[in-house]
Write a structure and sequence with these properties.
Structural class: alpha+beta
Number of helices: 7
Helix content: 25-40%
Radius of gyration: 17 Å
Length: 218
């Protein structure tokens, strides 16, 4: 019996996006234990919640199970109509966080939304900026995106700093009662190709053709 490699059957697993020492690759089951260790070591200070969906709330085991269920569910629901492409961020081969791109009706809208997190041990080193730049370059140059959006709470200055450093422009805000029960301001941002501040080193992509074909991106 011949065992077929997984990437030809599931093209997202065949995508590699690299820029200098950093690379983005589709989250695979074998990555989950290392990602879980990062989460348990901490992503943000206790008492703060930078995420619109407060997925880090709960006991360590609850958070771990919820995290794994999320990744299994987004793979299972990935269609040309709506999809989320979640990648591990690797620095010289070591996983340091996750970078995602989500969209609905992408062949028509050509718009996606970025989202990410970095383990606390690796924060304040410019990795979040480089990971976002790398994903945006992939979306613009290899998927044909014409706009990328992001959202952040006003009391999450690190995320807003990354967005504005890359060229995102403010696109309005709204008062928001979060799922964790606090009032804050949700800031919306948008990035056009002409405003995009690219990384210094080139972005190299492999496997994008099969990815585009699976998701009917012409």
């Amino acid at each position: 019996m011949t065992i077929q490699p997984l990437a030809p059957i599931w093209p997202p697993h065949g995508v590699t996006i690299s820029c200098g020492p950093l690379s983005l690759e589709s989250v695979k089951d074998e990555d989950l234990p290392e990602l879980d260790a990062l989460i348990r070591a901490g992503i943000h200070p206790a008492g703060q919640m930078p995420f619109v969906v407060p997925w880090t709330n709960g006991t360590p085991d609850e958070v771990s199970r919820r995290f794994m269920q999320y990744h299994w569910s987004i793979r299972g629901s990935m269609t040309p109509t709506a999809w989320t492409f979640e990648t591990v961020i690797r620095l010289d081969g070591r996983i340091v966080g996750c970078q995602g791109l989500s969209t609905s009706n992408f062949p028509e809208t050509r718009t996606g939304e970025t989202g990410s997190w970095i383990g606390q041990e690796f924060q304040a080193r410019g990795l979040g900026t480089l990971a976002r730049q790398t994903m945006c370059a992939f979306a613009f140059d290899y998927l044909g995106a014409t706009r990328i959006t992001s959202t952040s709470f006003a009391d999450n200055p690190a995320s807003l700093t990354v967005s504005r450093k890359i060229g995102y422009r403010d696109a309005g805000s709204m008062d928001r009662l979060t799922d964790s029960g606090r009032m804050t301001v949700q800031q919306f941002l948008t990035l056009d190709p002409s405003d995009f501040v690219r990384p210094i080193e080139p972005v190299v992509v492999n496997g994008s053709e099969s990815f585009r074909s699976m998701l009917e991106i012409l």
